[in-house]
Design a protein that fits this description.
CATH architecture of one domain in chain C: 3-Layer(aba) Sandwich
Number of domains of chain A: 2
Order of helices and strands of chain A: HHHHEEHHHHHHHHHHH
Distance between the termini of chain A: 12 Å
CATH superfamily of one domain in chain C: P-loop containing nucleotide triphosphate hydrolases
Structural class of chain C: alpha/beta
Structural class of chain A: mainly alpha
Shape of chain A: globular
CATH class of the largest domain in chain A: Mainly Alpha
Number of strands of chain C: 10
Number of strands of chain A: 2
CATH architecture of the largest domain in chain A: Orthogonal Bundle
Largest interface: A-B, 49 and 43 residues
Strand order of the largest sheet of chain C: 6-7-8-3-9-10
Low-confidence stretches of chain A: none
Radius of gyration of chain C: 19 Å
Mean pLDDT of chain C: 83
CATH topology of the largest domain in chain A: MetI-like fold
Strand content of chain A: under 5%
Strand order of the largest sheet of chain A: 1-2
Largest sheet of chain C: 6 strands, mixed
Low-confidence stretches of chain C: none
Helix content of chain A: over 70%
Number of helices of chain A: 15
Shape of chain C: globular
Chains: A mainly alpha, B mainly alpha, C alpha/beta
Largest sheet of chain A: 2 strands, antiparallel
CATH superfamily of the largest domain in chain A: MetI-like
CATH class of one domain in chain C: Alpha Beta
Radius of gyration of chain A: 24 Å
Oligomer: heterotrimer
Order of helices and strands of chain C: EEEHEEHEHHHHEHEHEEHH
Helix content of chain C: 25-40%
Strand content of chain C: 15-25%
Distance between the termini of chain C: 39 Å
């Protein structure tokens, strides 16, 4: 338990660090951000003045940081100029869309990676393993940007899948089943891109861990006991190989919000990614800060989750931790 | 030693690839900013050896493209006028490596008819030339960015590992922070808070510095590990026994041991940083027009019309693939060589 | 006559567990006192973990003792400032046990022996090379081997190299920390004979640290036995060997394998 608390404290420290970094970035921009805003005809002088007062730009840095921290703690992430509304709700909608995509992609990737990796490890060095290794090596060499764009072009030329957006026009007026179909068809491309991007590395990790576990003496003993192959592979070998994979899983969770930025932008999926990019280009400061902060929270949470899972799954860590 | 041979093989591949890009002026038929408003979005031209009448020609040739009747963006070959390709021909002025002025190009056509091997863009600029010149920008950004990161990482890692104590704690906590963050987001965040409209040179430097500052944590940790283990070795103690200063020890004994780690990290980081530049430029946050980089060459793909009709605008994306292959091959060869000596398993390649 | 080296009540604590605040302080040296007369050899015998290496490092000024004093030629070196210590360093040199880690494997023999001259900074390149070659010759490493890398040499050659390096700055005291323990028996014989010869020709003083009584018997004038960070018995070599007093001494003696008479001819590699 103390181990977990220590890791949680660590996570909190990380979050503070991240928030400080983010705040410092925004506060130390060359040229006053609000000066640029003043030049923007869409925003009235009164608004600028009010914002300046609200954000206490004339107070020293630590005071501003605490004030900002306080605001964030209350869920006030600022005001978006492009959307003319508080940042919170906008971010929430986009985050939901992103999570829909990334959770699906992650589940799919893991569901594919585990059997592929185990199968590959069990036939180490032979033809199926080499083909798989070759495929993953090839995929690894192709960066995500290239992959996503390539898929997009494929889709555009074959018209098999819609090439942008969450849902089609007229979504509201169809039956629930059709709604689901529509959503799914829009999801195919980005999910494929995400899966193809993360699958090779995952398969490699699974293969490596399981291959190492298969070498262990206790496994040979199990073979000697006549335990059936499938049980051996999944019940014994995978279990033993689980540690690094569990950590990896936790980290995957951490990247749920940030890992899909590129794919979302390329495929015009209305998630956090495009929001962030638009906000940067439109100089919509608080949206940027809010987006970055939210992703960092996910990341730190993912790390913590990895620690917690590892702690729960591996009794060795529990005993080592309690012995400290 | 087959490891040596593998290493040399990948090095040769990379040197060749970089050489082609470095000598972009020679390999590219045209100047990358030269526009030809009459011929926007030309598809790639085909090189023929056998003409429309079935005759075989020794010298490859191409047919210039003309607009199909009743169409404003469909082209067809004008089989009446075959234009031969000329090799080692004189073309536009350029400076090889920014130093040596020259007019020699690997191939070209006549003044009247231009050969667009990879098609042209909205302003009629030759894509092949733009890809080659763009490679210079992107690769340089990647190399310089990796250089900055490795320098930062090495300095911080050495300071943390050698001096230990609170300095070590502080630096490693900071490294954890940076490692925990997704570098793309950090990159964007950094970029966001810097001025948007800058000159191409400033933008380039910005990209280099920003990417450099983001990735120092992993090299720093690895270098620190090496320093920690070397610091305890007896020959370092012996040198201190002669009265050697800290600086001498770091420079003569410890630094050479980190070379392996730094090289492996370099091979992993350079393609990542090239990709970072491509991503930033693709989104309009990196190198702006008219300077071409692989990233901003892809920017036009964000328009639906381009996606549908002009598929050859995707080709710059493929340009990076052989480089990725080369660098990853080099990295794995280096890792194999170094794992023969030590047990560290942390120099990972992370796609996030 | 004043002894060359006198150690008085040396204590060295290490903090086990968390560094701050130190949880369990572990005393590697728990009040060590000894003295060595010039041109003699004191053998320090003890089991592993008795604190021998810690003592060696403190004497060679590579570590700071927690308390106590080390008098070298009448000067308290433990209390000296870093810069003053640096001036004294050439006088006390250390030969380590494992030549694989005490010599930089990538450097050549010449570079390794030249290093002390380079660090001292007052010799030209030619002078360094000449002096280094002279010392290499002295320890029996032939000219051919001089430009070989350290990892290409045999164990015996490496230790000769280590000794040459230790001799380079003409120290008065050489601390040999288990310097022969990693070598084969026949090589041990050769190297120990080399050490004896160097001692008589150069007037050296040795602090010879070992866990092997047979080696101590061969080389030492006086023997001190160390156990759990303390000197439990000391005195002239023959007396200790003939009638050991402390139980630690007796168990160490009992554990020593009977070594046949060592040859006294020096063999050149």
């Amino acid at each position: 338990m103390r181990y977990f608390l220590r890791r949680a404290l660590h996570a909190v420290f990380l979050l503070f660090g991240v928030s400080l970094l983010t705040f410092l970035f925004s506060a130390l921009t060359p040229g006053n951000y609000f000066d640029e805003m003043r030049l923007n005809p869409q925003i009235s002088q009164a608004t600028v003045a009010a914002l300046r007062a609200q954000y206490q730009l004339d107070r020293p840095l630590p005071v501003r940081y605490l004030h900002w921290l306080n605001a964030v703690a209350h869920g006030e992430l600022g005001f978006s100029f492009a959307y003319n509304s508080p940042v919170g709700p906008i971010l929430w909608v986009r985050a939901r869309n992103t999570l829909l995509l990334t959770i699906t992609a992650m589940l799919l990737a893991w569901l594919l990676a585990l059997p592929l990796g185990v199968w590959s490890a069990s036939r180490l060095g032979r033809a199926p393993d080499r083909i798989l290794s070759g495929t993953t090596a090839t995929l690894l060499v192709i960066p995500e940007l290239v992959l996503a764009l390539g898929l997009l072009i494929l889709a555009v030329r074959t018209h098999w899948f819609p090439t942008g957006g969450l849902v089609s026009v007229g979504f509201e007026s169809v039956s629930p089943l059709q709604k689901l179909q529509d959503l799914a068809s829009h999801m195919v491309l980005p999910v494929t891109a995400l899966v193809l991007g993360t699958l090779p590395m995952l398969v490699r990790h699974v293969r490596a861990s399981v291959a190492e576990a298969l070498q262990a003496p206790f496994l040979r003993a199990a073979v000697g006991h006549g335990i059936p192959r499938r049980k051996l592979l999944y019940g014994y070998a995978l279990r033993a190989a689980a540690n690094p994979l569990i950590s990896l899983f936790g980290f995957s969770v951490g990247t749920l919000l940030s890992g899909s930025l590129l794919v979302e932008v390329v495929m015009s999926w209305p998630g956090v990614g495009p929001l962030l990019v638009e906000a940067i280009l439109a100089r919509d400061l608080f949206v940027v800060i809010g987006g970055v902060l939210l992703s960092m929270i996910f990341l730190v949470g993912g790390n913590l989750l990895a620690d917690a899972l590892l702690y729960w799954a591996d009794p060795r860590i529990r005993t080592a931790a309690s012995a400290k | 030693m087959t490891q040596r041979r593998k290493l040399t093989r990948w090095l040769i591949v990379l040197v060749f690839l970089h050489g082609v890009v470095a000598a972009a002026g020679f390999f590219a038929p045209y100047d990358p900013v030269e526009q030809d408003r009459e011929r926007p979005y030309l598809p790639p031209m085909r090189i023929h050896l056998i003409d429309a009448y079935g005759h075989f020609h020794l010298r490859p040739f191409f047919y210039p493209l003309r607009l199909r009747k009743d169409s404003f963006d469909q082209y067809e070959e004008d089989t009446a006028s075959a234009v031969p390709l000329r090799f080692f021909t004189r073309g536009a002025d350029y400076r090889l490596l920014r130093l040596v002025p020259s007019r020699l190009h690997l191939f070209g056509a006549t003044v009247a008819a231009r050969v667009y091997l990879l098609g042209s863009d909205a302003y009629g600029r030759d894509q092949l030339s733009r890809i080659l010149y763009g490679g210079q920008v992107s690769l340089l950004a990647g190399l310089l960015g990796a250089g900055v990161t490795l320098l930062l990482g090495a300095l911080i890692g050495m300071a943390a590992g050698y001096y230990g104590g609170w300095r070590d704690d502080l630096l490693m906590r900071a490294a954890e922070l940076f490692l925990a963050l997704p570098w793309l987001y950090l990159l964007f965040a950094l970029r966001a808070f810097l001025p948007l409209t800058v000159s191409p040179l400033e933008a380039f430097l910005l990209v280099v510095v920003v990417t450099g500052m983001v990735g120092w944590a992993r090299p720093a940790r690895l270098v620190r590990g090496v320093v920690l283990s070397v610091k305890e070795l007896d020959f370092v103690r012996a040198a201190r026994g002669f009265g050697a200063s800290d600086l001498y020890l770091l420079r003569s004994h410890i630094l050479p041991e980190t070379a392996n780690v730094l090289l492996t990290q370099a091979a992993i980081l350079v393609p990542q940083f090239v990709l970072a530049e491509m991503t930033l430029s693709f989104l309009g946050l990196g190198v702006p027009e008219p300077m071409s980089s692989w990233g901003n060459l892809l920017a036009s793909l964000q328009q639906y019309s381009v996606l549908v009709s002009y598929w050859w605008m995707y080709l710059p994306a493929l340009a990076i693939v052989p480089f990725f292959l080369g660098y990853l091959g080099l990295a794995s060869a280096l890792q194999q060589r170094s794992s023969a000596y030590k047990i560290d398993g942390e120099s990972g390649w992370s796609p996030t | 006559m004043r002894p060359l080296l006198r150690v008085e009540n040396l204590v060295k604590h290490y903090a086990a567990g968390r560094p701050s605040p130190p949880k369990n302080k572990f005393a590697a040296l728990d009040g060590v006192s000894l003295s060595i007369r010039a041109r003699t050899t004191l053998a320090l015998v003890g089991e592993s973990g008795s604190g021998k290496s810690t003592l060696a490092r403190c004497i060679a000024c590579l570590e700071h003792p927690s308390s106590g004093s080390i008098w070298f030629e009448g000067v308290d070196v433990a209390g000296l400032h870093e810069n003053q210590q640096r001036l004294l360093r050439p006088q006390i040199q250390l030969v380590f046990q494992d030549p694989a880690s005490s010599l930089n494997p990538r450097w050549t023999a010449l570079e390794i022996v030249s290093e002390p001259f380079f660090v001292q900074g007052r010799f030209s390149k030619q002078e360094r090379s000449d002096k280094a070659c002279a010392w290499l010759d002295h320890v029996g490493i032939s000219r051919k081997m001089v430009s070989r890398r350290a990892d290409e040499l045999s164990g015996g050659q490496k230790q000769r190299l280590a000794i040459a390096r230790a001799l380079a700055l003409e120290p008065k005291l050489i601390v040999l920390d288990e310097a022969l323990s990693a070598l084969d028996y026949s090589v041990q014989a050769q190297i120990s004979n080399l050490l004896l010869e160097l001692q008589s020709s150069l007037g050296l003083t040795y602090l010879f640290i070992t866990h092997d009584f047979a080696m101590a018997a061969h080389l030492a004038d006086e023997i001190a036995v160390m156990d759990h960070g303390r000197i439990v018995e000391s005195g002239p070599a023959e007396r200790i060997l003939r009638s050991p007093g402390h139980h630690a001494t007796r168990s160490l003696l009992a554990a020593t394998p009977r070594v046949p008479e060592t040859p006294t001819i020096l063999v050149n590699f």
